[in-house]
TrEMBL record:
Gene3D superfamilies: Immunoglobulins (2.60.40.10), Ribonuclease Inhibitor (3.80.10.10). Residues 417-442 have a biased composition (Basic and acidic residues). This is Fibronectin type-III domain-containing protein. SMART domains: LRR_SD22 (SM00365), LRR_TYP (SM00369). It comes from Silurus meridionalis (Southern catfish).
Length: 739
């Protein structure tokens, strides 16, 4: 009875105890606040004007977005176990020096976006475990080492967007663990050369948007041996002395943009051997001298845009073999050496826009370098828009042919002298340049005379008039070589791909003309007629996610010498046109387009290049479309094959197991059937116990006591007796014989 009486009481206690605990917890949570977790009190945006009081143990207190005006000495006395305190976006103008004395376990303190103008000495001295301190976007004007005390655990400090003017000596001497320091958007015009002493673990330093005018002392950053990022943009820096950055051995990013730097000295960048990004846009640089950029051998991105650069030494970028992005836009460049970028094998993006380029013979080598680099698939973007002479204004250098480049200074000694001066030691002038210079003013009769003197026999041929001059045809073929090196030509008979010089320098020599004229049935020299009569059966096969093979066929009596094919391809249906071309020799009948975009519709066309000339009419009769596959689809197909193979193997294995199991079952049933037959006989006719008439009589009388039968019972002589050896089972032991 006692146990039955206590059970309802126990059930009531078990249900009421959690309810009481929940009520107590709600009662401990301050008014207008939320306590979603244990030891968490969140009071953000509740219109509070003072720190709320609580009797519970709180570790996280959020008070952002209220109207708290000051933090008194005893306001946080009840929060001795706090680890995170957020007081951002309030109206705090004053913090008592003893406000944080009880918060010995505090690790994160956020005081940003308030109205704090001064901090008294010793304000943060009790926070020995503090790792994060935000005091950004306030009105702080002065800082001293006594304000912070010894914060050896501090990792991140934000003091940006204040009104700080000076950084005194050894200001951060007790910040041995500091890694991130934000001082941007202040009024700092003077930094003591020992301000950053002791910050041996600092990795990020932002001093941008201040009033710095000079960087003179070599010891200013000497202690920052772990620094990775240094931002000095948007200051008033006019001069940086040599060796200022010499101890920043690990620095990878340096920003000096939007300053007033006029010139870089040879030792300014010394020590920055690991620098990968340098931005100096928006300065007053007028020239880039040789040797200035030599220390930054690992640079990958260099921004020199929006300066006043008029001259760049041909060897200025010679040591920058890892340079990938170079921005020289919006300067005052008129010409640049063609060999200025020959050492930058990794260059992918070159921005030369916004300059006043003079497109004459002195830009010929730059054009050759750009075309050759694009042909190898190295240069992705590089555009030079001509401003001079007026006849070429607005035209891109890629689309200016050699004759137009030579028009202004044809045969000029100064032009040839400058080209000779820029020529690399041991490098010979490409063949054909001098010949083009000489032939610029010659007539057709003079050229015929020279050909006869060389031993060439010129035959008269009935040529169809061309729709454009030969010079314009050369220009179109030259400009069409964009991106040809990004694709691989599949050539028949193991023939090699034409080089760019074969197309530009020798567009159909006299020997080729003679050999073409001697071939039977060859009288077509016009590219348009050639495309119409000889090219056929354009098709695309072997399409994958990034490549496709273009096939075409021709009749057997086509041209051989001076013949090439240009395969145009572009994305179909896109408003932004980005045509690309692949060139193949006359013997080729297939070209592989590589580096395509997956799951994209393309259109490709094939046209002939006869004697270096192209048809001005688009070859729409010899085009084909195709859609690249998706990498996921290809992987799905391969996965399906693997899955099918695994399923087939599993099915075979299951079949084998089933056959073995069925065989065992059948054998067991046959064995049981044989053994059951013998057992039946033994049970029926066992003679181990002799038959007794009395027992039979008793059994019959007991079983049929209520039934009267007229049948005579069998006598002893009528019973059949069998010898016991007949029913002996040799497979069993004597003890197991059934009785």
């Amino acid at each position: 009875m006692a146990k039955r009486a206590l059970s309802p009481l126990a059930v009531w206690a078990a249900g009421a105890l959690p309810t009481l605990l929940l009520l107590c917890a709600r009662a401990a949570c301050p008014e207008l606040c939320e306590c979603p977790r244990a030891h968490h009190v969140l009071c953000a945006n509740r219109g509070l004007r003072a720190v709320p009081e609580t009797s519970r143990s709180v570790r996280v207190l959020g008070l952002a977005g209220n109207f708290i005006g000051n933090v008194s000495a005893r306001a946080l006395a009840r929060y001795g176990h706090l680890t995170r305190l957020d007081l951002q976006f309030n109206q705090i103008g004053r913090v008592h020096p003893g406000a944080f004395e009880e918060l010995v376990e505090l690790q994160e303190l956020y005081l940003g976006h308030n109205e704090i103008s001064t901090l008294q000495p010793g304000t943060f001295s009790a926070l020995q475990k503090l790792a994060v301190l935000y005091s950004n976007d306030n009105s702080i004007q002065e800082l001293s080492a006594e304000i912070f005390g010894k914060l050896d655990s501090l990792v991140r400090l934000r003091l940006d967007r204040n009104a700080i003017e000076l950084l005194s000596e050894s200001l951060f001497k007790h910040f041995s663990s500091l890694k991130f320091l934000h001082l941007e958007s202040n009024q700092i015009h003077h930094i003591h050369h020992k301000t950053f002493f002791g910050l041996t673990k600092l990795q990020f330093l932002n001093l941008s948007d201040n009033k710095q005018t000079q960087l003179l002392h070599t010891t200013l950053f000497s202690q920052l041996r772990s620094l990775l990022t240094l931002l000095l943009s948007e200051n008033h820096i006019t001069h940086i002395s040599a060796h200022v950055f010499q101890n920043l051995k690990k620095l990878t990013k340096l920003s000096l943009s939007n300053n007033r730097i006029v010139q870089l000295e040879n030792g300014t960048l010394r020590g920055l051997s690991r620098l990968r990004e340098l931005t100096m846009n928006g300065n007053l640089l007028t020239e880039i001298l040789a040797g200035v950029l030599e220390p930054i051998v690992r640079i990958e991105r260099l921004d020199l845009s929006d300066n006043r650069i008029t001259r760049i030494h041909p060897a200025a970028f010679a040591r920058l073999t890892r340079l990938k992005e170079l921005d020289l836009s919006n300067n005052q460049l008129m010409r640049i050496s063609g060999g200025a970028f020959t050492s930058n094998a990794a260059l992918l993006q070159l921005d030369l826009s916004g300059n006043e380029w003079r497109c004459d013979c002195r830009m010929e080598k730059l054009k050759e370098w750009m075309v050759e680099t694009r042909a190898r698939g190295k240069l992705l973007t590089a555009h030079v828009q001509c401003h001079h002479p007026p006849t070429l204004q607005g035209k891109y250098l890629d689309h200016v042919n050699d004759t137009e480049l030579l028009e202004e200074l044809t045969g000029s000694l100064s032009c040839r002298a400058e080209n000779e001066a820029e020529r690399e030691p041991g490098r010979q002038e490409p063949p054909g340049v001098e010949e083009r210079l000489k032939r610029g003013g010659e007539k057709e009769e003079d050229m015929e005379t020279q050909d006869v003197q060389r031993g060439h026999k010129k035959k008269k041929m009935n040529l169809r008039p061309r729709t454009a001059p030969r010079s314009s045809a050369k220009a179109s073929s030259s400009s069409a070589l964009l991106g040809t090196g990004m694709f691989q030509n599949v050539m028949e008979e193991n023939t090699s791909t034409w080089e760019l010089s074969d197309v530009l320098e020798n567009p159909g020599s006299q020997n080729d003309v003679d050999s073409m004229a001697q071939k039977p049935g060859v009288g077509v020299m016009d590219a348009c007629q050639f495309n119409h009569r000889y090219i056929a059966n354009v098709s695309v096969n072997n399409v994958t996610s990034d490549s496709a093979t273009v096939f075409w066929s021709m009749s057997e009596d086509t041209l051989s010498g001076g013949l090439a094919f240009r395969i145009l391809f572009d994305r179909f249906g896109h408003s932004v046109r980005f045509q690309r071309y692949v060139y193949a020799r006359g013997s080729a009948r297939a070209v592989v387009l590589q580096e395509l975009r997956p799951h994209t519709t393309y259109i490709t066309c094939v046209e002939g290049v006869v004697g270096g000339a192209l048809c001005q009419v688009a070859p729409r009769d010899h085009c084909a479309g195709f859609i690249t596959t998706s990498p996921a689809a290809e992987s799905d197909i391969r996965l399906q094959h693997v899955t099918a193979a695994v399923l087939a193997a599993n099915a075979l294995l299951i079949l084998l197991v089933g056959v073995v199991w069925l065989r065992r079952v059948l054998r067991r049933r046959i064995r049981n059937r044989k053994s059951s037959t013998h057992a039946h006989v033994r049970h029926m006719y066992s003679t181990r116990r002799p038959y007794r008439a009395a027992m039979a009589t008793t059994c019959v009388s007991s079983e049929f006591s209520r039934y009267q039968s007229g049948r005579v019972l069998a006598e002893d002589g009528d019973l059949i007796q069998f010898p016991p050896e007949r029913f002996f089972d040799p497979r069993r032991d004597d003890d197991s014989v059934i009785t």
